[in-house]
Design goal:
The chain has twelve helices and 20 strands. The longest helix has 20 residues. Strands 3, 4, 5, 6, 7, 8 and 9 form a seven-stranded mixed sheet that branches. Strands 11, 12, 13, 15 and 18 form a five-stranded antiparallel sheet that branches. By secondary structure, the protein is α+β, with helices and mostly antiparallel strands.
Length: 435
């Protein structure tokens, strides 16, 4: 029999508890997964793509651009909610381009970002509340951006033209209130992928928007006055600061949400304990996987699916061991997701030792759509009260996981060759123990 998760509600933070818990998350999550392990698809012979204003945007691979301006590249008309949020992020990115021309405002922003050791992002609304000069400058720049560009919220929100022209109107509060991708509400945040150690206003600053714009997984933004593309390799190696603007932690919104956490309910129909031949030299394997139609969270042609496992003992916060599933992500073409294709090739999963099964060790594991350019979102371990037993992973939105579960390792895999299978509305994965 398969294991079916019939009801799975993600644990998330409430408005009232988020500021406190974020401090704990930043300080106590001992390990987080590395950035998505994507290939560096550098093409040394590629031609530069000239934009309409004379600047150049160079993809990090041979994939051609569909457009030549930042605004056009981040549009996703087939995903209207994401498109609206991208337009909000565009306004924030434009505003930060203006603000960071002031060394004082730039270092105020960057100092807050450098303190964000958890990588969840700094709320642009919150830091504005703490500095009236920054708040005034941010509000003015946001209103200017909205007045300049014929994108959301113009033409959509009633009375927006008069609001934009009102110098007392709080554009920051308004845009923040619209950062909703049901059932989550998001903070507009700024964050680093590679965190500098100090603010140096003389260094060249790049500001980008959290949205991949081609099959190279490049992101688009501005370096000074020039529109540019930034690759994962550049973001991880550049000595100059790169500020990402994107949606932060998602706060789960539901009529049944009472604050603190939402209960996670896992219902199992049974566990397949049938034995089969072990595969040598691997402690565990994926030998079947599927992403089902309607659950493609990637704008490019291929989705990058990654996984995590944390080995832990529920009675203590120490001794947790976080690791990725394998040396490479699973890359699935959009056509195969649209067709709900089932793959039966064998791939390495995560490494559990024989003692993990014999000692009654617990595991917390799952899969998600990995976006190297996203801020980290927290997925809470429902089998432990200890923060180090949860995981923070880079995905644009909080719902972009495929499955997660937890329990005693020997319950999932009672003997060598035993199989555990997850089959829910988003995906299907079959994991096999080989030790």
């Amino acid at each position: 029999m398969n294991v079916h998760i019939k009801k799975l509600h993600l644990i998330w933070l409430s408005h009232t508890t988020a500021p406190i818990l974020l401090v704990f998350i930043a300080g106590y999550i001992l390990m987080t997964l590395n950035a998505c392990k994507k290939e560096n698809l550098m093409n040394t012979t590629q031609a530069e793509s000239a934009s309409t204003d004379g600047t150049t945007m160079i993809p990090s691979c041979s994939d051609p651009l569909s457009a030549f301006t930042v605004l056009d590249l981040i549009r996703t008309p087939d995903e209207p909610v994401n498109d609206r949020i991208n337009m909000i992020l565009y306004h924030y990115a434009q505003a930060l381009r203006v603000l960071t021309q002031s060394p004082t405002h730039r270092c105020y922003l960057e100092s807050a970002m450098m303190a964000d050791t958890g990588g969840v992002g700094i709320s642009l609304y919150s830091i504005a509340q703490e500095n009236s000069s920054f708040a005034q400058a941010l509000n003015m720049a946001l209103r200017q951006s909205m007045a300049t560009y014929e994108i959301y919220p113009r033409g959509v929100e009633e009375g927006i033209e008069s609001s934009i022209s009102d110098p007392n109107w709080d554009a920051n509060t308004f845009l923040r209130s619209k950062m909703i991708y049901p059932p989550y509400k998001y903070e507009p945040v700024a964050y680093y992928v590679k965190r500098p150690t100090e603010c140096e206003p003389t260094r060249q600053l790049t500001i980008v928007i959290a949205q991949d714009v081609n099959d190279c997984d490049d992101v688009a933004g501005w370096r000074g006055a020039n529109e540019v593309l930034v690759s994962e390799n550049e973001a991880n190696s550049s000595s100059d600061p790169i500020i990402f603007v994107g949606p932060g932690l998602g706060v789960y919104q539901s009529t049944s949400f009472t604050g603190g956490v939402n209960e996670v309910v896992l219902t199992e129909d049974g566990i397949d304990k049938s034995s089969s031949s072990a595969v040598k030299d691997r402690s565990d394997l994926i030998d079947l996987y599927q992403i089902k139609a309607g659950y493609r969270y990637e704008s490019s042609k291929k989705s990058e699916i990654d996984g995590w496992v944390i080995r832990f003992t529920p009675s203590t916060s120490f001794g947790s061991d976080l690791r990725p599933w394998a040396s490479n992500t699973i890359k699935i073409h959009k056509d195969d997701i649209n067709a709900s294709r089932v793959f039966t090739n064998t791939l390495p999963a995560f490494a559990l030792a024989a003692t993990d099964y014999s000692s009654g060790r617990s595991v917390f594991f799952g899969t998600w759509e990995c976006d190297w350019w996203a801020s980290k979102k927290v997925v809470v371990n429902p089998c432990s009260v200890w923060i180090p037993h949860s995981v923070s992973i880079r995905m644009k939105y909080s719902h972009e996981w495929y499955f997660f579960t937890c329990g005693v390792a020997s319950t999932f895999w009672p003997s060598t060759g035993s199989v555990w299978e997850i089959d829910n509305e988003k995906c299907r994965f079959r994991l096999r123990r080989t030790l």
